[in-house]
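Continuing the series of single-chain predictions for the mutant panel. This is the parent chain; the variants come on the following pages.
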Amino acid sequence: MTARSASRRTRILTTVAAVLVIVVGAIVLVAARGEDRVAGSTESAVGSAVVVRPDSHRLTDPAGSRVTLVEFLDFECEACRAMFPVVEQLRADYGDRVTFVVRYFPIPSHFNSERAARAAEAAAGQGRFEQMYQRMYETQAGWGEKRVPQDAVFRGFAVELGLDMAAFDAAYNDPATAARVLSDSDDGLALGVQGTPTFFVNGEKVTARDYQDLAAALDAVL
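Parent structure:
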């Protein structure tokens, strides 16, 4: 082989090797990006729905609490009304150790449930969420199962609570308030909530029919 041929062969081999390095590098880079996309989409899918958000309404929030009970509720739901005194008793018994959170999940077939949630959210804007939450259940028998809007009834509750009515009316009719209610409901659907009340303890859905069921779930993680 002549020196010229050897030089030409060396150049060809060098070029082929360089191309292989580039191709392999490109394959590795694409694979890495693919893994990044998969990891990112998984994180997004998991993170898109959470049991508790920073703006979720906390009925109790004791310092150092490591246990959280979340209820997805519908103010017009009779089963939620039946569980209301149970939750109140649990708050009395565990409120110094457990964070109690409530989130909206109005059932479409309940004509006034979304309105009731908006009224509670409007009251929350004036620091009176808990009082409106309690008022809704205490009076549910009077306004529930109606097929006409109960806006005036809910507005009457706001008057009784001494709220700034101009601010209440503005919040009640604000699309942002309806969106806030819907965001809770969307989280619930993504988390597998199919009806109300649905409870979660430290992020795990629990089947609860009475005080003993919920107390047992709390005791198990305390």
